Description:
There is one protein chain. The protein is an alpha/beta fold. It has 2 domains: about 1-200, Formyl transferase, N-terminal domain (Rossmann fold), CATH 3.40.50; about 205-295, Formyl transferase, C-terminal domain (Methionyl-tRNA Fmet Formyltransferase, Chain A, domain 2, Roll). About 25% of the residues lie in helices and about 25% in strands. The protein has helices at about 15-20, 45-55, 70-75, 95, 120-125, 160-180, 215-225, 290-295; strands at about 1-5, 25-30, 35, 40-45, 60, 80-85, 105-110, 115, 130-140, 150-155, 200, 230-235, 240-250, 265, 275-280, 285-290. Strand 12 (about 230-235) and strand 13 form a beta hairpin. Helix 1 (about 15-20) packs parallel to helix 6 and helix 5 runs antiparallel to helix 7 (about 215-225). About 35% of the residues are buried.
Amino acid sequence: MRLAFMGTPDFAVPALRALHRAGHDIITVYSQPPRPAGRGKRLRPSPVQVAAEELGIPVRTPLSLRRNVEEQAYFRGLDLDAAVVAAYGLILPEAMLDAPHRGCLNIHASLLPRWRGAAPIQAAILAGDSESGVTIMQMDAGLDTGAMLLRDHVALTPRTTATTLHDDLAAMGGRLIVEALRQPAYPGTPQPETGVTYVQRLSREDGRIDWTAPAPAIDRQIRALTPWPGTFTVLNGEVIKIGAAEIAPGHTQAAPGTVVDERLRVACGKGTMLRIMRLQRPGRGMMEADAFQRGQAVAPGTCLGTERPDA
C-alpha cells in the first residue's frame, strides 16, 4: 500500500518500523523539525526522522501545515492510499485529511473516547484507570473524534509507570496499524458521546507534589509523570526530584509533608504514608534513597514542600 507516515517521538517509531517490515511502500515521512537539545543546543532530529533515515525513507519537516499551501499541494500529489499518523504534533488541515484514498488513520494511545487530546498515557495512570490501550481511528476535522477501526487494551497494575505503558502501547500501535491496513476500507464505529475526557498538555507545575493528597494519588502522580515532566518537592529551599516511591503501610498523625523516619517515609493526606525510593538533588544524579541518606540525611520531622521557589 502506498503510504505516508507522520510522527515525531519514540512512541511512533515501532509503528513506522512495523509498516516497513510489512512491505508497505512508505513514500515519505513527515516529522517535526529538529530541535535544539543537550548542553550545546545542537539541532537534534526527532526519533522518527532518525528511524526513517535509517530505513532510507525521505523525510519532510515543515514548521506548519494549516496555511502551508505548497505542502498541502505536494501531499495531494503523492496519490496515497492512506496516511498513518502517530503523535505527529501538528494539526492536519482538511485538504490533507481528505487527500489519501483511505484517508488518514491515527494511532491513539487510549481507549477512545477516554482521554482525547494530549498525554493520554499519563492521564490513565493519574486517574487510576484499570486499563488503557490503543485505538486506530479514522481521522476527521475534530480532535480525536473520528470513527474507531480497531482497539486493544492492556491492564494497568499498581506498578505501571508511564515508561512501561508507553512502550507497551507503542508496540501495540505498530501491530494494530498493520492489521487495520490489511482490512478493506469501511466506515468504522462512531465513538460514543458519553465518557469523553479531554486532557491538556502537561507542564512542569503538574509535577509539584501536594503532600495533603492521599498516598495512592501521589504514588500515581510519580508513576505517571516520571521521567517527564517529573515530580518534585521542596527540601530546605531546594527543588528535589522524586523518581520513585511506594505506598507505606500503616497510618500517621504527622502533618502532611513531614518526614516520619530515616527510611524517608513521608506523611500524606488522610494519615497515609509514602516511602520515597529514588530522589535527586539539583546538579546531582538520581539516587536510591539509602544512598541519598548516607550522603546528607534528611532528618525525621523535616517538612517537605512548605516553600515554593521559582520554577
